[in-house]
Structure formats: structure tokens, C-alpha cells
Amino acid sequence: MKVNIYAVSEFENFSLEWNKLNQQTHQQAILTADFIQCLIQHFFIGTEQFVVVNKSNKIVFIGFFQRVGLGRWQTVMPSQAPLGLWLSSDGRIGEKLLASIATALPGVVLQLDLLQADSRYLTVEPNIQQLHYIETGNKPIPEHYDDFFKTIGKNLRQNCNKAYNRAERQNDSFSTQVLTGPDEIVEGVKQYGDIESASWKAELGTAISADNEQGKFYQDMMGQLAQRNAACVWYFLVSGQVAAVDLCVIHNGNLIILKTTFDEKFAQYSPALLLKMQMLKYYAEHPELKIINIEFYGKAMDWHKRLNSELRPIVHLSWQRSKLLQWVVSKLKHYKNNKPRQLQSE
Fold first, then answer.
1. What is the DSSP string of 10-65?
2. Is residue 218 within 8 Å of residue 43, measured between CB atoms?
């Protein structure tokens, strides 16, 4: 293996190779080169290392790393990236690959971590530590929406019907709207920010707004992806007022809901959930759009499970240079997974 280390500014020269690896593996919009370029622009600080690994004149691994402590490096993980910013040609991660990267990085590297790997595209050799991060889910678009609706739990069906009945009693009407043009998508991100800035997230300082770095990133990124029909914004409206918003990106039939929010004054209708139901219905009834799967890439919530979503783990991978360090990390992992509940709550 030959490992080359580049400045982050060199990424643009490898965008075709990056997209090729994404196409061979994940086929997700959040791992396309234009999405990554927007992350670089808004969240990178300039000290990151861009790593390219070649074998037999082919790129077999590509990714971004940063130093996080004495002898420790990990893949770069901006807060707005659902998955770690790295790709492996065949999804296989082994000791030889990571040892080669560790040797090429500056200084003595004792531990190398690959963060937030989608287990669906991953084959890990036994000597690489796997640490559970979250369980996520996806929902394939049903062929017939009415048949799908019959399969979900009785409580969810009743809740949906109650929301529509309540709206009728209160003379409210429900509708949805999907935005696809670059300009209207930017306005959709601003609408999302207006709603979230008025929510409980604003008190925590985590809300997207039109003027903060998160909001600027989503406006830039989704505006760029919309130019190649790879982004959309969904609205759920109550009597013409926007009650819920989903920010979505699309690639190869996979639609990812990146962010979702709702106006709390419409909470009685569960508009964010009703929006998901309407999205499933819309794509089921419009197969010509070729959306075959909805990805969530966040922590699986109860409503994901109630939609009969397919669940799988997102994991962190960890390699240590010495057997002793491997043993220590293994023991720490065992302790973390098995410590008494009383200690966990504390």
C-alpha cells in the first residue's frame, strides 16, 4: 500500500475518485464530493489531513483525519455530517490498512479511530475494535401505500386518523408541498430556521437560523445539490401555515432526511410524523421519481420503529498499535458496556 498525505485544499483534485468510491459503496448524497466540499468550507479549521491510500494503482481508501490527543488520530467528524468522512473501496477495514495510515501520519500514532461507520457497508477484521454508536434506520418506499398503512401498529394508525378528525372538527386543513428549485430550497432552509429558532432548541443554542454557521451551511449545501436535482425541502401545512419542515438530499434513489422540525403550536397534530407518512405515500404513488428508500441516519426513535423501519448499527472503529493498548481499550469497552445501572445513571 502507498499512503499519501495532502492538505485539505487538495480534495477538489480527488473529487472524481471520491465520488467513484461513494458510488461503489454507500451511494448516499451525504458522501458526495459537493456535500463534503461544503463541510470543508464551513466547518474545517485547516489542520486536518487528507489521506489517500493506493494499492495496485487504485485508490482503496480516502478520508480526512485530525489529531485529537497524544498519539491519537481520528477521522474528521463535523457536527452536520451524519457519517464519518472516509470511504473504503470494498468496505473492508483491517490492521494492515490502518497501520499503513498511522505510519504515514505526522508523529507517532498509537491509536487510530474511524468514526460513525455504517455497518451496512462494512467488513471489519477481528483485530479492529468495534464500538457501538447508535442504531439508525431506513424505510423502503412501499409499492402500495394503502397496503403499507395496514401493516403499521394499531396505535399509529389511530393517531393518524385522530389527527385528521381533530383537524376537521377545528376547521383546519392539511396539505404538503415539496420544494425542488435552488432558490426556493434556500428559502425553505430559512423557513426551517425560523421555526427552529422559536423552539426549545434555541434555548440550548443548537437551533439552525438563517444567520448562524449551521444555517449558512445548509443554505449553501442544499442550494448546490439542488442544481443537480439532489435536494428537496418538504413542508407540512396546517390551513396554509407551515407546521413542519424536512430538509432532504437525494442520490441514486436514496432520500435522506437530514433535519426535521415542527412548529410547536401545531403539536396536537404531530405534523412531523404526518409529513413522513405523506412522503411515503407521495413516493409510492410516483414511482417515476425513482425514490426507493428513505434514510434517517439519526438515532432510531420510537416513530421509526412504528413505521416498520429497517434498523442497523452505526459504529466507531478503533485500531491500536500495540497488543497492550488493544487489551486496555478492550477492557474499557467491556467496562463501559457492563457497568452497573446505578453508576450509569450517576
1. GGGGGHHHHHHHHHHTT--GGGSHHHHHHHHHHH--S--EEEEEEETTEEEEEEEE
2. no
Record: fold of 142-291? Aminopeptidase (3.40.630)
The reported pTM is 0.91
Cell 474545517, residue? 44
For residue 343, the model assigns a pLDDT of 42
Q: Which amino acid is at 184?
A: E
Convert the pLDDT of each residue in 269-309 to its tens digit: 999 999 999 999 999 999 999 999 999 999 999 989 999 99
Helix segments in 131-212, DSSP class H: 145-151, 154-169, 182-197, 200-204
Q: Residues with Cβ < 8 Å from 272, sequence gap 6 or more?
A: 236, 244, 246, 260, 261, 262
Q: Is 83 helix (H, G, I), strand (E, B) or coil?
A: coil
pLDDT of residue 341: 47
Are residues 256 and 297 in contact, defined by beta-carbon separation less than 8 angstroms? yes
Question: Quick one: fold of 2-134+314-345?
Answer: Aminopeptidase (3.40.630)
What is the rounded CA–CA span in Å between residue 61 and residue 86? 7
Nearest-angstrom CA–CA distance, 83 and 78:
9
Q: Where are the domains of the chain?
A: 2-134+314-345, 142-291
Q: What are the backbone dihedrals phi and psi of residue 8, each rounded to the nearest 5 degrees, phi first?
A: -60, -30
Q: What residues of the chain score a pLDDT lower than 70?
A: 200-206, 323-346
Nearest to 84 by CA among 61, 59, 112, 64: 64
What is the tens place of the pLDDT at every residue in 254-270? 999 999 999 999 999 99
Residue 327: what pLDDT? Answer: 61
Nine cell digits for residue 193: 430556521
Distances 290 to 116, 125, 201 between C-alpha atoms, Å: 28, 35, 34
**Dist. CA 158–CA 149, nearest whole Å:** 11
| Domains 2-134+314-345 and 142-291 in one fold | yes
CA distance 222 to 227: 9
